[in-house]
Amino acid sequence: MINGILNIYKEKGYTSHDVVARLRGIVKQKKIGHTGTLDPDAEGVLPVCLGRATKVCGLLTDKDKIYEAVLLLGTTTDTQDISGTVLEERAADGLAEEQILDCIQTYIGEYEQLPPMYSALKVNGKKLYELARAGIEVERERRKVTIHDIQIVEIKLPRVRMRVHCSKGTYIRTLCHDIGADLNVGGCMESLLRTQVSCFALADSVPLKQVEEYVQRGALTDILLPTDSVFGELRAVHVNKKCELLAINGNPFGVKALEMPDTFADGENVRIYDTKGHFIGIFEYRGVKGELCVKKMFYDAEER
User: Fold this and answer.
1) Does 132 or 269 have the greater pLDDT score?
2) Looking at the predicted structure, is the pLDDT value of residue 7 above 60?
3) pLDDT: which is higher, 155 or 2
């Protein structure tokens, strides 16, 4: 079984599920999962986890993301992006650049966002987009999201190109819709490019066709990232030979079990490795007992 993460460049026309289905055929493996939905018209970074790395799918979904989006002012659609049915068109050429900048800046920080009807969220077991296509609109609860930063790349009315750094669960098309509404001309998302998810950057992403070429050459490992690459911000420590089995079996152990005993903050998470450098998992230090306790295991006995 292939274990690791591929930084896929999702092209237009594919859903995230399409990417997973294609990869299953390319690498001949069923155990594959993506790390967060991108709309079919969106492009960019989509980390895909294979084998034991699927354990980090949820963790990557929770990570902050960076997008480059084009806001089309003056056009309101039912889907909040350019692919939808136009509901209203208004002139946006009378807007002052300073007015647009001031409005956009108000969205930096935490704000309550109303999930769009055309989304994969479920209400009473039904996906919202399924209800929307049936002409049914249901009440949705607003959700708190965080916009860490918005950088304006270019204003060329009626278009505003911007770079958005945001928390999980943020709908960029809804952000575009809300900005347009606040400016009293309406707005929708014309294009979307995801440039970063956690440590996975656009410059390192690979389209499906290129992945297929690597597989055909028997060189998939050249682009397959190890599972522990997701946790680069955590300290890496190694258990000693005597206590390897304790860690491998998920048992708690004290700092004396480490090759180089160290001090840790209460609640600190660390990456644990065996004496040969194989990744065991994420452990949390619990100061009351002075022990490192397992939070997530990734150990692969076949690697030994």
Assistant:
1) 269
2) yes
3) 155
Token pair of 116 as six digits: 């769009």
Do the beta carbons of residue 39 and residue 227 sit within 8 Å? Answer: no
The residues near 295 (Cβ < 8 Å, ≥ 6 apart) are 269, 281, 282, 283, 284
- Report in angstroms the alpha-carbon separations of 54 from 20, 41, 156, 166, 173: 12, 25, 42, 23, 28
Residues 173-227 pLDDT 10s: 999 999 999 999 999 999 999 999 988 999 999 999 999 999 999 999 999 999 8
Structure tokens at 243: 């206590």
Burial of 186 (0-12, 13-18, 19+ CB in 10 A): buried
- Coil, helix or strand at residue 221: helix
- Measured CA to CA, the distance from residue 24 to residue 18 in angstroms comes to 10
How far apart CA 192 and CA 275 sit, in angstroms, is 45
Active site residue 39: yes
Angle between helices 208-216 and 16-27 (to 10 degrees): 10
Question: Position 185: which residue type?
Answer: V
Check if the beta carbon of residue 200 is closer than 8 Å to that of residue 45: yes
Residue 19 parent element (H or E): helix 16-27
* Residue in 18, 39, 182, 262 annotated catalytic: 39
Amino acid at 27: V
What does the pLDDT look like over 52-66, one tens digit per residue? 888 887 777 778 899
What mean pLDDT is reported for the chain? 89
Phi and psi based region of residue 298 (left: phi greater than 0; alpha: psi -120 to 50; beta: remaining)? alpha
Give percent of the chain above pLDDT 70: 91
Instruction: Say which range, 105-114, 201-210, 242-251, has the weakest mean pLDDT.
Output: 242-251
- Return the structure tokens found at 262: 């160290």
Question: Which ranges constitute the DSSP H helices of 123-228?
Answer: 128-133, 172-182, 208-216
Strands (E), 176-216: 187-197, 200-201
